[in-house]
Task: inverse folding
């Protein structure tokens, strides 16, 4: 028996309708394939990866995750954190690829264990890609000596994961995808099938459920960025403990968990919509400004990351704009000369931050933005 999908109330249905409205508008905006969409998708993926690893205590900047995604050396992240990020990136890349896997796709134990190995394969001592062979306890954030949750006996894991897989393929198919993804997350994290990496796997499974829906690219539906922010992380652990209980107990009320996830999806959808609108306006503004300077519109590929506060790397700009080494170098030098960008560091560690003129562009484009709303009130 699994934790059961709750009955949604009027507020939940309203929040779901608002999320769907934002997703519809995003879908139409992306269908036109604007020139900045590739950069936005990479940035959202990097934010999800950074957020998921921050929850587990491996903090890294979004810029360093983007660098790893493009084959570049990160400027700050190294050692164990880098390895964790690379594992998460592999799993997310595969999830993105499964979005268009077709009618043949089915959830099975091999898929779940394979994704787990992508995430945890560098921890060979923790049985990556294989069910755990012993007990596991989730420690309390208040006292590491006190178990906040005791997972089912390991002998129960094959049967419980089998039931979950059957549900993923055929259960509650009429339920909104946001609710199905939330329940997949809750059940997997409480079964705790592996010795380690269960949190990241459960969040990855939630994103995979969205990917299979095929409405939007999965990076637009992941809530990991939002979950990875300070107080949200504490709220995430608190509601998991409240709903999951001290041990496996599928009779408990799962409505608080689903409501928490719906709020997260609503806020993440607001952010995705905000970024899409912002980048559309920013591209137009920066293209007009660069044309006035006699520059090719391609330089906006370098200006756009600086606009949203990311470090600009020459090699990443070169890939985005499909340029030669010398073209990219000349463009960046000209952008520095015209005070759009400011250089920092040297050699392979060199990057570019917003210059004086970028700051005025940021103020002009961002000036009309409204604050985010709380879908469930204060």
Result:
């Amino acid at each position: 028996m699994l934790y059961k999908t709750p009955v949604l109330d009027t507020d939940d249905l309203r929040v779901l309708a608002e999320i769907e409205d934002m997703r519809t508008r995003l879908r139409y905006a992306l269908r036109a394939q604007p020139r900045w969409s590739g950069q936005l998708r990479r940035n959202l993926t990097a934010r999800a990866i950074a957020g998921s690893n921050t929850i587990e205590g491996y903090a890294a900047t979004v810029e360093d995750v983007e660098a790893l995604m493009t084959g570049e050396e990160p400027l700050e992240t190294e050692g164990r954190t880098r390895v964790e990020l690379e594992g998460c990136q592999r799993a997310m890349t595969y999830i993105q690829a499964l979005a268009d896997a077709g009618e043949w796709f089915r959830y099975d134990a091999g898929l779940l264990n394979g994704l787990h190995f992508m995430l945890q394969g560098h921890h060979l001592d923790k049985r990556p890609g294989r069910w755990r062979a012993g007990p596991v306890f989730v420690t309390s954030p208040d006292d590491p000596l006190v178990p906040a949750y005791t997972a089912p006996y390991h002998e129960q894991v094959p049967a419980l994961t089998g039931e979950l897989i059957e549900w993923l393929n055929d259960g509650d198919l009429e339920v909104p995808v946001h609710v199905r993804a939330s329940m997949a997350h809750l059940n997997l994290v409480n079964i705790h099938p592996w010795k380690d990496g269960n949190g990241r796997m459960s969040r990855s499974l939630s994103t995979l459920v969205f990917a299979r829906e095929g409405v939007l690219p999965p990076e637009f539906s992941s809530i990991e960025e939002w979950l990875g922010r300070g107080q949200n992380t504490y709220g995430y652990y608190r509601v998991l403990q409240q709903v999951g209980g001290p041990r496996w107990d599928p009779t408990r009320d799962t409505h608080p968990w689903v409501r928490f996830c719906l709020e997260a999806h609503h806020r993440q959808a607001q952010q995705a919509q905000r970024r899409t609108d912002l980048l559309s306006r920013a591209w137009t503004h920066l293209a007009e400004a660069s044309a006035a300077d006699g520059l090719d519109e391609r330089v906006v590929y370098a200006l756009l990351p600086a606009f949203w506060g990311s470090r600009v790397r020459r090699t990443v700009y070169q890939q985005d704009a499909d340029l030669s080494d010398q073209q990219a170098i000349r463009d960046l030098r000209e952008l520095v000369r015209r005070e759009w960008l400011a250089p920092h560091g040297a050699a392979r560690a060199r990057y570019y931050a917003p210059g004086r003129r970028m700051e005025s562009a940021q103020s002009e484009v961002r000036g009309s933005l409204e604050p985010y709303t709380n879908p469930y009130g204060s």
Remarks:
- The mean pLDDT is 90.
- The longest strand covers residues 147-150.
- The first helix runs from residue 10 to 31.
- The domain at 290-366 is CATH 1.10.10.10 (Arc Repressor Mutant, subunit A).
